[in-house]
Amino acid sequence: MDRTLDNKIIKAVKWSSITEVLSKCIQPISNMLLARILAPDVFGVVATINIIVSFVDMFTDAGFQKYIIQNEFKDEEHLEKSLTVAFWTNLILSLGLWLVIIIFKDNIAQLVGSPGLGFTIVIACISLPLTSFSSLQIGYFKRKFDFKTLFFSRLIGILIPIFITLPLAFKMRTYWALVIGTILTNLSNAIILTYSSQWKPKLFYSVELLKDMFSFSIWSLIEQITIWLTLYIGTFIVGVYLSPYYIGMYKTSMTTVNQIMNLITSATTPILFSTLSRLQNNRKKFIDLFFKFQKYIAIIVLPMAVGIFMYRELITQILLGSQWSEATGFVGLWGLMSGIVIVFGYYSSEVYRSLGKPKLSVLSQVLHLIFLIPLLNISAKKSFVLLYSARSLARIQAIIVDMIIMWIAVKISPMKMIKNVWQYMIASILMGGLAYLLQNISNSMIWSFISIVICIIFYFVIICISKNNRYIIVKILKSISA
Fold first, then answer.
1. 406, 348 Cβ separation under 8 angstroms
2. CA-based angle 202:208:210, to the nearest 5?
3. Positive or negative, the Cα torsion across 198, 187, 48, 383?
4. Which of 34, 152, 165, 240 fits a disulfide with 181 by CB distance 3.0 to 4.6 angstroms?
5. Which of 98, 103, 176, 108 is nearest to 130 (CA)?
6. Are 1 and 467 in contact (CB under 8 A)?
7. Sign of CA dihedral 350, 352, 356, 362
8. Helix (H) or strand (E) holding 320
9. How far does Cα 165 stand from its chain's mean position?
10. Is 63 left (phi over 0), alpha (psi -120 to 50) or beta?
């Protein structure tokens, strides 16, 4: 790999990792406090609002951010003109869709199972025009591998829940605290990124450029829609069959685990996509980089997943509190499956996009939805436990589909993917067995923390038997400290 590109990757990983470490240190603290201040049904209301906001936000972006990151532009002027056209398109779309939401607010609220919340949805959608400012700037900085600037922007967004959302939640005790906090976070991102960027929107528009971008981005947009359906269809179905209390339980359990796992995925996914996009015409380097990322991620993610499952009660108690005890099983099972999905399926979509083949990701998501939707409809009618069990285990089907597509379309063998990380799978399983034995000694919280430390040491002792693994771990530590 080119040394300049390699250095850019290392610096990008450094700043992206710092951002995610700070985020995952601060966010759990704010979430721990919010979960104790606000009732589960409040989080359920916000989850239903986010269904609308996130859905409309996809159309305002129209896949242009990925276009900016991936496309090969003729020169800097071509890039800046494309950014400007994308910005005005996003802004006009966001304002137009916001107007539609204002007109049909009550019908929309009824549709998502939250009658009477039409006005709240309208206010929450203030974020739509704000993200039209920040979305393209984020793509611009990622293209330049400038994750340092993104770090400072994200840092402000991380601090807003501490200094604004929490005081509002303590004072108001309603979902308005979360809605206002989200709006202010998006506002700060728009201001900071626009101010820091060399590119600023100008009074320029080109229908020809729009056609080029849209023809490139249409499948990315369709892909985003299918991913959105995968993420939110469960929340929608829970809203149809169960109460806001269980919507809160469902969505907050997933969010809690995802925040832990995102410490790894959020720090690496943008860098992997940006780098693979640059290497799409060099197959050997492309494949080598994919397997390198998979191996490095598996070293950390697989034991994390097993750890979340084995210590699910402790994690739920610390991060959410006693009123969320019914979520314990979901937290554990979702955490276990998340680790497996990240290692064997999550990065497949980045491979598809970086090769300019978002259709493959769409195919993967559609096949998963065909399996997932009827499964959730049936299980939601039975019980919450059956629902979250079905939702978690259904991810196995998604992994199998991605592995098959990767083998047929990209020529990356499923067996080679498994062989690449088998040592960490065995070590994680053995660590899980040790955790089970240690938990039988005592139920105290202090012993739980001691046993976690013992498990971590045990895991790394096992994998460090291999000289190659010792080299990888040293290299990761040097990259982070560089």
1. yes
2. 65
3. positive
4. 165
5. 98
6. no
7. negative
8. none
9. 21
10. left
Which one-letter amino acid corresponds to residue 61?
D
- The set of residues, in sequence order, having a beta carbon less than 8 Å from that of 281 and lying 6+ positions away, is none
Which structure tokens are listed for 337? 């499956």
Rounded mean pLDDT, 51-70: 73
Q: How far is CA 401 from CA 222, 258, 367, 368, in A?
A: 18, 22, 8, 8
The residues near 449 (Cβ < 8 Å, ≥ 6 apart) are: none
Task: Answer positive or negative: Cα dihedral of 127, 128, 131, 135.
Answer: positive
Express each pLDDT in 70-129 by its tens digit.
Answer: 777 777 788 888 888 888 888 888 888 899 989 998 888 887 767 788 888 899 888 888
Query: Is residue 226 classed as helix, strand or coil in its secondary structure?
Result: helix
**Residue 38: partners with Cβ closer than 8 Å, 6 or more residues away:** 169, 173, 174, 175, 177, 178
Report pLDDT digits (tens) over 352-393.
877 777 788 888 889 999 999 999 999 988 888 999 999 999
Q: How many Cα atoms are found within 13 Å in the side-chain-facing hemisphere of 247?
A: 26
